[in-house]
Every structure is written in C-alpha cells, then in structure tokens.
Design goal:
alpha+beta, globular
Length: 142
C-alpha cells in the first residue's frame, strides 16, 4: 500500500529523479534517493512544510542538483520505476530510512548538514536525518 499518493506519471517522475541523482550509485543508491524524497513528502517539517506530492517534492526550488544542473533529461527505465514504486510503497533502507537530506561532497562527510546530524555515507553520498525534536513526523510508522 502506498504511503503517498502516486499516479503512473508520478512514479515516472520519481524514477527519473532516482536515475538523474544516483544512477552511478546502483540500485541501492537510487532507492536511498527515493527514500529521502518520500520522507520529504511525509515529514511536513523544516524546509519541507507543505510538500504533499511527488511533483512538489521533485520541483521544489534548489532541492536537487539534477534539476538545477540539467541532469534530469533521461527517460525512466523499468528498473527505476520498480525502485520508485518500492519507495512509494514505504520500503525504507538505511542510511536513508529517516533522512531528509543527502549530498555528494568532494571529500569527507561533514558531521552536520542544514544543522542535522550525519547518519552515514553510502558510496559517494552522505545522508542526514533530523532529530525527533525538529521533525517528529519522520519517525512515525506507516
């Protein structure tokens, strides 16, 4: 059962984001990007208040490097669509299980990002999750 509403075109949009942001990180890396996106829709806190749909999340200004720098042009493939559906259906994987942010630094992961603590690094991306005090919704179970 989906944890956010998603039409077929929303799944395709999320799948394109997964490919653009993390294709080089493999399936798990793309799944982690999907987790962060779905978390942003569910969280309703911090920079993500009022984000309720996949298009709002994907096109939120300054949210994703792939959108900002033009990497968001490739079509979604079946592999990315399957991963997007898994994320929409609530599958979460560590270190993005509760993360709202990730980024790819030149070197080591900073200990905080937007004031939130580092969870871990997966390949080239660092993942950060809010504290329960700043964003309790992210820790609610589905």
């Amino acid at each position: 059962m989906a944890v956010v509403k998603a039409r077929d075109q929303d799944i395709t949009l999320l799948a394109r984001l997964l490919r653009a942001e993390a294709e080089g990180e493999g399936e798990k890396g793309m799944m982690l990007v999907g987790n962060v996106g779905i978390n942003r829709i569910r969280a309703n806190c911090s920079d993500f208040k009022g984000i309720r749909t996949i298009p709002q999340m994907v096109y939120q200004p300054h949210a994703f490097e792939a959108i900002i720098h033009g990497y968001f042009y490739q079509k979604a493939r079946d592999r990315e669509r399957r991963l997007a559906r898994r994320a929409v259906n609530g599958e979460r994987q560590w270190p993005a299980k509760f993360s709202l942010w990730y980024f790819r630094p030149q070197g080591d992961c900073p200990s905080t990002w937007y004031g939130q603590p580092l969870v871990a690094r997966y390949r080239k991306h660092c993942f950060y999750q809010p504290t329960a005090e700043t964003c309790e919704n992210i820790y609610n179970t589905f």
